[in-house]
Fold these 3 entries.
Entry 1:
Amino acid sequence: MERPHWSECLDKALTGLGVRDYKTGESRDEGKSMAYDLITMGRIGVDLYPLQTGVPLAQVSSFGKFLGGSATNVAVAAARLGRHTAVITRTGDDPFGTYLHEALRDFGVDDRWVTPVPGLPTPVTFCEVFPPDDFPLYFYRQPKAPDLEIDAHELDLDAIREARIFWVTGTGLSEEPSRTATLAALAHRAKEGTTVFDLDWRPMFWSSDISGSRPGPAAARPFYAEALRHTTVAVGNLDEVEVATGVRDPHAAARALLDAGVEIAVVKQGPKGVLAVSRNGDSAEVPPLPVTVLNGLGAGDAFGGSLCNGLLEGWDLETIMRHANAAGAIVASRLECSSAMPTPDEVAAALEAGAVL
């Protein structure tokens, strides 16, 4: 059977990869352990969110500026819970890029692997806020998002392997060179520690073919399958697990993810809560925490940061899911995403109250 072209590209990328500082390109001291609890790799950008709710974007008169991007927000969420985190991503060489560096430092997230791409603008995202469940997003990532320019040969592979948790996303597989970089990082890590794959299916980010059509789930599935081979934890909603496995039923999809190689499958079911199943037979199905939703866009990232925290703590599946649900619910009750990530005390208070008050 002929090997797919992308597999050959991955082999080439893995050949001769050095241990380099992503910012300077210089070799890193191999004896120096960075000791990160969590390194995430993926999107970053500026969220410009309306300060009025229930108003169409055309009529919004004022906006708030926030750090954004799913993988970046997960690093922020875990940092808020006391974890030592870093993000691997790229920005434009522009004032918005400068702002993102400042914001990361303010949140306690290491920005050493956040580098500029000359000629590409830092992505900007707008949204509309129509509580409780309508939050249209408008992504400005043209002509190409800098975070898709992460190159395998610039990765600090030792730091990636040493991190207690490494987090990647489906969007990282959507275009080269990010695709090969993501798969190379996963292959080098080789399931060392905990490796989380956020299935993160956003078809608008996948490159169009010559006809202008974007690839569907069937075209993306081989890349997801390759990522899952190197993953210990997979997390996604019903749409995303269907893209990864071809199965939509939550329990069947969780089994399919385990069969694909992961140790824990986490399936978000919306109003029905979250299902988590582990290879050792443990499972938990936890309902959502009651909350009055203001903006649900950052809830999944808060869930992810709390998931990582619970895994690092060694909690059982049900405890992890309850804390992650609470973290997500807290952010859903707030307008912004990154700056809305909860502290441990806020999560504990929500769990004690049985709702976000």
Entry 2:
Amino acid sequence: MIFYKKQNRIRGGLQFETRDFGNIETPPLPDAVNIDCGNEAEITVSPGQQVLTGQPLTKPDNNVITSHASVSGVITSIDKQVVSIKSDRQDTRFQFAKPVLNSSSDYQAYFCKMGLIGMGGAGFPVHQKIKSITPDTLLINAAECDPAIYCDEALIQERAAEIVKGIHIALHATGAKNCIIGIEDNKTKAIEQLQKHLPVNIELVQIPSIYPSGAEQSLFYLCTGKSGTLKDNKAICFNVATCYAMHQAVDFCRPLTTRILSIVQNNSVRNIEARIGTSLLTLQPMFDQPLPEKVICGGKMMGVTVNKNHCINKTTNSILTTEKPAQQILPCIRCGACEEICPENLMPQQLYWHTSPINTDQLQDLTLHNCIECACCDAVCPSHIPLAALFNAAKSQLEDEKNAYQKAELAKSRYEKRLNRLNSQATRQRKQLDSKTAQLSDGKNSDAEKKALIAKALNRKKSKTPATDKSRNNRSL
């Protein structure tokens, strides 16, 4: 990790005299929502069915994220795993039973049921993250992952006490002994609010407000001085919004049905708590100006361009009304600027040459999997090559190839086990037959013994006959 050594880091976002983002606004209840349940989820509802706010729409599964209705009303359609619900304007809540949580496995099952994911942007299922490691250290990410996202800062300023309760829940769920909160040093109001509620056993560390200090590996290094992955250091990381969602789920039995996000336009920012599945057009009253056809979803650096019909999902943390300007992509001039700026000390220029076509071996040797897709290389590339997008696509293809290989290996293993089982069964039957043949051919056996063996074999054969000849004849008549 060479993050701290590089001077020409990316700085961005808006400049504020006072960073006070309290009073998170709540938009009016939407008339309809469209909830994307994911390709692999098993949907358990049907069109025409009445649902309540928080009611599960999919079957809880360890491998997928559980989805819930974000409003009460009637399901109007299900199209390509997207459940559309027309609101009845009542917002009647689905009642979950109070959970009994005594072990880490209890928390995993409950968080899966509640549909909790990492709220920092990556969206990794919480129950899977807890299951993957038994940590010594719990790292809480209070640093925004992008220069133009302010929702976490607003959440800390307004609901610091609830976040701390969620941190205690995360400590119980993971079994971690130590806890560190990493926060950027320019978030003075948020730091004050956290310090009011933090117990002495939780350490608050202020880090430089330089992008991408919010990346979990960079954050861990800046907070502890230890290099290597979090897994190598027996650490696990959760976003502050994730901890808040844990508090809501455990203390109030509320699944993840809302999302706090930043609306950034011109030189102003508003933070709202929107229902999952709400379209941007429905949120138009929260914008100062009419929505353009295209907006940026996900931040200034890592955001992607979407149309104004886009619906809020669990990973939506920011909406920028300024569209990224179209740039002509030119050939790479091998300037090396991308390598100088990379916080993970990768060689983006070399990675770029092996993404088209995909060279699996070279990309693995160049540790493409360590790319955090921060888009610093995009920002400094004079040829305007969308390196982060190319690396994202390459990582997805490598992951698909890995999954296909694992499935093929699993099928091969099952086939070989079945073949061995059949061979063992044939060998056992052959030994039994040889043994019986030897007994029959043994001259020492008396005629009575031989007849008894033959009768036993005939009876065994007769007992295995599925139907008598008489019944067959009756059917033929």
Entry 3:
Amino acid sequence: MTPAARLAAAASVLDSIHHSRQPAEVVLKAWGAANRYAGSKDRRAIADRVYKVLRAKGRLVWAMGSREDGRALVIGSLSLIDGLSLEEIEALHSGEGYGPRPLSKQERARITAPEGELPGWVAAGIPEFVLEDFKATYGDDYRQQARELMAPRAPIDLRVNIAKTTVAAVEAELIEAGLNPVRTPWSAVGLRLSAEPPPNVQALDAFKLGHIEIQDEGSQLACWLTGVTANTTVVDYCAGGGGKTLGLAMLGQPVATAAPAAASSEPVAVWSPVGGEGQGTAPQARPKTRAAEMGIRLFAYDVVQKRLDNIRPRLNRAGVTADLRLLGQNGGGVEDLVGKADVVLVDAPCTGTGTWRRRPEDAWRLKLSEVERLHALQVQILDRASALVKPGGRLVFVTCSMLRAENEATADAFEANHPEFAKVPVAQTLDSDLITQAGKARLAELADGHRLRLSPASSGTDGFFAAVYQRPE
């Protein structure tokens, strides 16, 4: 394909994304399947253009006179992002072959006009109705928060399944496969891969064998904040895709305990989740001795059966278990667990604004009415889920949202409706061995009492919010 033909294809894909609810990645794959003549370099160039446009869409729409069609956005990107001159852009729009038609008079005027002073939301690169929420939450830091959420491409985070292996072993596997993993700074069982070029994680032996799962470090940390310990009853109230279900299930696996070693002046190598250095001189495998029973009873609920069905093969691959249950639309199906759960995790439905660096197209689909609808739903869900917590048990409310209108607003409503629940300072939830020492220090710094906010700018993770509660004994 010629460079001009690639631009025309990118414009077509952008139009398809605009008129669809499908993720951009799915639309791009569908385009590639329908246009077999496009080689891998062509598909990569088209995808790069599409994501460039989506990340800067607010500014491009503004610059092109409120036009949102793919052609206008691509033309705007050539000028504002690539810095091409009018002559260079016109050369790519000759109308020859499969390239786009020549520029109109209005298009020429748009890309040659001075940009002028940008409205705050355009300069920040986020939807207009989100701006005031960001200002209220982040103050003078809102621009950096917005930029880090929208501009960079997110890395690929992996959670190592320490029920089967160690971080060190997987690290070696990935290096042997030609990748360059680095350890995540806060989760002790996380590895991070660059998204450039995007790795095909599901084709790796480590994935097929259940040694790794794709899971953002922030999502991993949400699991470790629950304080799940041996012989407890745990409820994942909104299982969704199952990422946190698998993380919690991993916590319920037997932990091997080695027989006491004879006294020796030599350093003793001990097992750790990261295959680490501990007291020894080299990483060690998990001891193959009699395991201490430490299982948890994990119940994962969702209102969509298909989502639960999709979790099952992932559990099997990871070698972990959970009781998958369909939740009624009005909260039915949990009667046998009322007042019996030691831990209830509510990863509530939300706008997903914290994942915009992965799915920038979602930013421009979101409406204020959807934020309001989800806030009301979260309040309802938290109310129902809290009934499952037994005296002394913990309730953890989590979203992958950056919006105060969902996070703090929902936590405020829950606390007003349920004053019997005590607020648990996040600093008291950081004793897990699966959080690094640096992570414990950083999370304690970011916490606001019993509430915690993570973001690409503050923690290098997706955007997450958590609030921790305990029902009194």
